[in-house]
Amino acid sequence: MNIAFIAHDRKKDEMVNFVIAYETAFEHHQLYSTGTTGTRIMEQTGLQIHRFMSGPLGGDQQIGALVAQNEMDLIIFLRDPLMAQPHEPDIIALLRLCDVQGIPVATNIATAELLVRALQRGDFAWRELVHKYKPGESQ
Fold first, then answer.
1. Which of 57, 76, 97, 111 is the most buried (most CB within 10 A)?
2. CA quadruple 69, 130, 78, 53: dihedral positive or negative?
3. Above pLDDT 90, what percent of the chain?
4. Total tally of structural domains belonging to the chain
5. Does residue 97 form part of some domain?
6. Where are the beta strands (DSSP E) in the chain?
7. Which residues form the domain of 77?
8. Is 138 among the domain residues?
9. What's the CATH code of the domain at 14?
């Protein structure tokens, strides 16, 4: 499964702690992240993460491109709801793409935990079918 991590500045520590807690759940998946978030996670875990640019510099849109191609399976995006973000249009576009493609996205730690526990139980097997039979392709 392809999993992306994104965290606003004041949520980066929370993201790192979350990934540390569930490191074994993530170790057998393809992991992606925006720049600084990915660096911080890799410094604190043994996980390898493909890092895109920082969110405000286009990293959100790079992850969004994978979502648009239906190549992302789960996104954990810890947003800071109390701080205005200069790249808010990019954030809204990413969340809209997740809705269009039916990609599970957690924007807070409680939802992230529910999704990771579902991942551990194998509840995301339906995403493998999406990859096997992409819409518009002959079967």
1. 76
2. negative
3. 75
4. 1
5. yes
6. 2-7, 30-33, 50-51, 74-78, 105-106
7. 2-130
8. no
9. 3.40.50.1380
Average pLDDT along the chain: 91
Contacts of 68 (CB under 8 A, 6+ apart): 97, 101
> Is 135 within the bounds of a domain?
no
Task: Considering the candidates 13, 60, 90, 123, report the single residue annotated as catalytic.
Answer: 60
- Structure-token match 């957690």, residue found: 106
Binding residues: 8, 12, 34-37, 54-55, 87
Condensed to tens digits (0 to 9), the pLDDT of residues 18-33 reads: 999 999 999 999 999 9
Residue 60 annotated as catalytic: yes
Which residue ranges are tagged as binding site for substrate? 8, 12, 34-37, 54-55, 87
Q: Which amino acid is at 125?
A: A
8 occurs within a structural domain:
yes
Can you tell me which residue has the tokens 């969110």? 55
Taking the model in full, what pTM does it have? 0.90
